[in-house]
Design goal:
about 45% helix, alpha+beta, 6-stranded mixed β-sheet
């Protein structure tokens, strides 16, 4: 993993500069020799915005009957090794923590009963399957492209949540003011979606 790149992207996320983070990661990937992982460049998950809006709305409706929801956290599964199915789960909190100390994320009051499948990147799922099954990580250049693609998938998920937050504000949905935190399993590259 390019830890300098991860640190740079994290700084952009903390400064609410998600678009710049995507631009930087795409440029970094573009500078490498072309691979199947380059398919991520220029693509997003925005076609899932209506599904995600409904998913969060249903989750919030169930949660608010149990406690006062102060934050919602979403985590994508460990997608690089679970290439057969990419999905997200939601977690509700009665206390709002900070990104300085992530321990609070283990203290959720409620979690989604069903996961939401992430679709439209199935071709990339196949790329990860081939990469893992054929042990292609031994190729260091290919490994670099793989790792940057991972980061871009997470950034595109975060971009989807930002899009959905805009929809929630426009439609005056009940959860429009609830902070959303988004990442993938085992990643600390968390984005707090703000209005």
């Amino acid at each position: 993993m390019d830890f300098d790149l991860v640190d740079e992207l994290n700084r952009y996320l903390l400064d609410n500069k998600l678009e710049l983070a995507i631009e930087v990661a795409e440029k970094k990937l573009s500078n490498l020799s072309s691979t199947e992982f380059h398919k991520i460049i220029g693509r997003d998950l925005k076609p899932l915005s209506e599904n995600l809006t409904s998913y969060i709305t249903a989750f919030y409706s169930q949660s608010k009957n149990k406690f006062e929801v102060k934050a919602i956290y979403s985590e994508m599964n460990g997608f690089t090794i679970n290439y057969d199915l990419w999905f997200i789960d939601l977690f509700g909190y009665s206390e709002l923590g900070t990104l300085d100390d992530l321990d609070w994320l283990s203290e959720f009051e409620y979690s989604s009963e069903k996961s939401m499948t992430i679709s439209s990147f199935e071709d990339l799922q196949s790329v990860y399957e081939e990469y893992m099954e054929n042990e292609k990580w031994r190729d260091k250049e290919l490994e670099k492209a793989c790792k940057i693609c991972e980061l871009l998938i997470i950034l595109r998920l975060q971009e989807l949540f930002k899009e959905v937050k805009t929809i929630a504000v426009q439609r005056n949905l009940d959860w429009k003011d609830i902070p959303l935190f988004v990442t993938a399993h085992d990643y600390e590259m968390i984005y707090e979606v703000k209005k």
